[in-house]
Every structure is written in structure tokens, then in C-alpha cells.
């Protein structure tokens, strides 16, 4: 049986210091691959924010990148991310509350079975 790849994506807003799942764990025998610059972040708030992109594998957190993003500035994750376990998800979290507006994010990936 040949491998099948399907483009998938998600978008949303952060929730302060509460982690938000950007990309949920794949099904069994499936991989979700986020390409370079496949995560985009826009700080629409009136103040700088500290954002962290992280992998959550069954409660074990691996920080991929933490950055301070100025107001009205875009950021992206420069590397490739592979989710290949049924308990492995991609999350985004801020260091604290925002001043006025929760920042936006979006993620693109290929799901391969």
C-alpha cells in the first residue's frame, strides 16, 4: 500500500499562560510533519509577548523555541517538526497575560499514513 499525504492546518489565538494545542496527536501509523516556517504567529497585542512553541508527548514537554515578539510583529518557527506518536501534540503558550488582545497563530502540516 502506498503512502498517502494530505495537507492539514489549524489556526487560533493564544490563551495567556495556558497552553493551546495547535496540532493534535496523529492517529496510529500516521505522521504529521510541519515544514519549515509552517508555524506562524502574529502579536496583535499592544505590548510585547513571550511565546513558546512546544511538543507535548504524554505530558513531557519539549521546548522548541521561545521568543519575545514585539507588538504588531510576525514570527515563525524555522525548523521541521514531526509528530509521530499518538500521544504527541504541538502547543503554543505565552509567558503571561496579554495587555489587550490575544495573539493569532496558524500551523500547516502534511499528514502521512
3D structure, described in words:
By secondary structure, this protein is mainly β. The protein has a single domain, classed as Jelly Rolls (Sandwich), CATH 2.60.120. Helix content is 0%, strand content 55%. The protein has no helices and ten strands. It has strands spanning 5-13, 20-23, 31-34, 39-42, 49-57, 60-69, 74-76, 81-83, 88-94, 104-112. The strands form two sheets. Strands 1, 3, 4, 7, 8 and 10 form a six-stranded antiparallel sheet that branches. A hairpin with a 2-residue loop joins β5 (49-57) and β6 (60-69).
Number of strands: 10
Q: So how many helices?
A: 0
Main β-sheet description: 6 strands, antiparallel
User: At the third CATH level, what is the topology name?
Assistant: Jelly Rolls
Summing up helix and strand content along with how strands pair, one would put the structural category as mainly beta
Give the C-alpha Rg. Answer: 14 Å
CATH class, anyone? Mainly Beta
Amount of beta strand: over 45%
Give a concise summary.
The chain is mainly beta.
Keywords:
113 residues; 10 strands; four-stranded antiparallel beta sheet; 0% helix; mainly beta; Jelly Rolls; single chain; six-stranded antiparallel beta sheet; 55% strand
Strand-helix topology:
Layout: E1 5-13, E2 20-23, E3 31-34, E4 39-42, E5 49-57, E6 60-69, E7 74-76, E8 81-83, E9 88-94, E10 104-112
